């Protein structure tokens, strides 16, 4: 009871002083007090499997990161206008993961800032303003980036509010998209969006996640990214890969998701996982794009790329390499994907399984209703999973896709724990549907009432 009161006090103080728009998970918000690897612990000491923290890419509370941050914090943390080696060292390590043409870096504090800067870079470089995005995308909250957001959950009125400089191409979604897995019509949609940008001076940039994370981890049809980049370049635009959710080894096939899709962008933005929770945003670009920006204005972010951030960023790369976490994402992700597909064959509530490696989406549908998204069912499943000790949340345009993006130290035992609980929930739901059908058949009047 004491602990319950303490949680209530935390909740009350937050509700009193923090804007309601800063939302919380679950109807009854939860107080997590500790994280360790891919586990979270609440204030009652209960343990939950963490399927949502792609930010804590190497796992919660990794001692190597704590040590790196503490060491540098005790020495010096200053702004980037002094010379210190941590920034060059971090840039060099990032460069090792990227193609040679993308070895020029900017450092900021968050994903939104990184996308914002990338779009500014593209606008200055091309001398144009228009940006092409795809439907159902989220890229951040700053004014210029919010103008690009098309995910209803984060921006319900995006269609009405759409800026004249933003042009929206179709989501290359093999399951729900109008053109199925045929790539050409989706490329045509990108060309159309670029053409629409023409009257306003032409397209400056195309921003997309190489794997469609905000939509639930959808893998575009083969050839989409390369074809879309070719179309945008043909129209004179710059291609920006938002790797904030899907990059840094998560897909297992490559360190960056764009590599797995066989295409190279002109600008890459990374955040979240970069600092394992410490705020670090990275923009990697072609040198000529950065040079043009420098001629227009100097660039300075007070805390972006500071010594502590760069040490943490380097430590994250060390752990990813030393613990072979991208390889782990591939092996555990392959097991998880195969088992999820087996569940999809067994339970009609699963319409499709998306993703690669340890970025997976499970599309929840109304059984027998031809792919009809079931957001209420997705929420119920998440609530029940929470009772069973698993933290998972829905995403996607219809909020019906369960997203699985745990820390990359996630192992087979953790995957099996999740799969066992998920199977149990799906079985419970199938049984209660059957019970309902039986009672409806026994009492025809109820059926009428239900209509
Ligand atoms: N791009 C994508 C794909 C994201 O998922 C997010 C965060 N949800 C952002 C950009 C913005 O990052 P941040 O929250 O660090 O500003």
Task: Give structural notes.
- With 451 residues, the protein is an alpha/beta fold.
- The protein has 15 helices and 15 strands.
- It is 43% helix and 15% strand.
- The strands form three sheets. It has a seven-stranded mixed β-sheet with strand order 4-10-9-8-7-5-6, with helices on both faces. A four-stranded mixed β-sheet has the order 1-2-3-13.
- The longest helix has 31 residues.
- The protein starts with a helix and ends with a helix.
- 4'-deoxy-4'-aminopyridoxal-5'-phosphate binds next to helix 4.
- This is Aminotransferase.
- Belongs to the class-III pyridoxal-phosphate-dependent aminotransferase family.
- Keywords: Aminotransferase, Pyridoxal phosphate, Transferase.
Can you identify the CATH superfamily of the largest domain? Type I PLP-dependent aspartate aminotransferase-like (Major domain)
Enumerate how many helices there are, as a single number: 15
Outline: globular
Spans where pLDDT lies below 50 across 5 or more residues: 445-451
**What's the pLDDT, averaged over the residues?**
94
Family: Belongs to the class-III pyridoxal-phosphate-dependent aminotransferase family.
Domain Rhodanese: 83-150
Protein name: Aminotransferase
